[in-house]
Predict the structure.
Amino acid sequence: MPDVIVAHPGWGESLFLKDVWPAARLGMYCEFYYCTENADVGFDPEFSRAGDLQASRLRVKNANNLLHFEFADAGLAPTAWQASTFPEAFRSRITVAHDGIDTRVVRPRPDVRLVLNARGRQVELSRSNEIVTFVSRNLEPYRGYHVFMRALPQLLSARPDARVLIVGGNEVSYGGPPPDGGSWKEVFIREVRSRISDADWDRVHFMGKLEYDQFIALLQLSTVHVYLTYPFVLSWSLLEAMSCGCAIVGSDTAPVREVIQEDETGRLVDFFDTTALAQRVCELLDDAPARQRLGARAREFAVARYDLRQVCLPQQRNWVESLAPEFA
């Protein structure tokens, strides 16, 4: 007989658990509630779906969330903005506590090295190199891959010594695939390639998906890290970049503003402004003291708010115990 059950309601597996164990307390992991405005839907007109069925599609997507509101005892959301997407009637039952970042592992490392296989030859990179990083689970519009790629010609032209390291797969995590098939990665390579010389293109490295230790090494190596997203679920990778002490240029969108304060823990730029993105990255590449200051404050913020052992696990444990206080 479980005392507490914690479930993600999105696919419906937990709909009948309280029928089996009526005395159990049920906590929902409130990851995201789809909204018709002020979130991801319709944010990027270039990829928005036209037609009158949008609201109906979202209603179906939210169906399992809605069905749980009647009997779930409490909710847990990783960020305040994600909690704010839920209907007000249930929002008062949601506690905000992030999944947590292991800041003892994800930390700055001045002596980090990374070996690239660059066009058939091995290149060892260190913190002395000028490196711009971009990370997404998959390279797609939801995470601003198209915006980053469109900024590349200007960025590469302005920074003849910079290398650009792009992490991410070729599949689709959010949204839809390209209408003509293939991958979003290739769609936007084709769009910008003619505006980038062969010599400059040799400094662009698609890393694919990395093992975790390699991924952290890449963040530790970064001179400037770029993170872009629709108003949607916040990526762990941004908090990991902050924990590594990266100097960050992020999109001025709601989930990012929760952790990146302008000129405090990073710099912000309009999601769609590719010229401004390239300029802000170049400004930081030219300003080592600013990078050091922003990176240090980003690290402090990540440790203070999102450390796994000292902050997030205690918050999660307190939440679980609050569901069944007699077992605390």
About this structure: The mean pLDDT is 94.
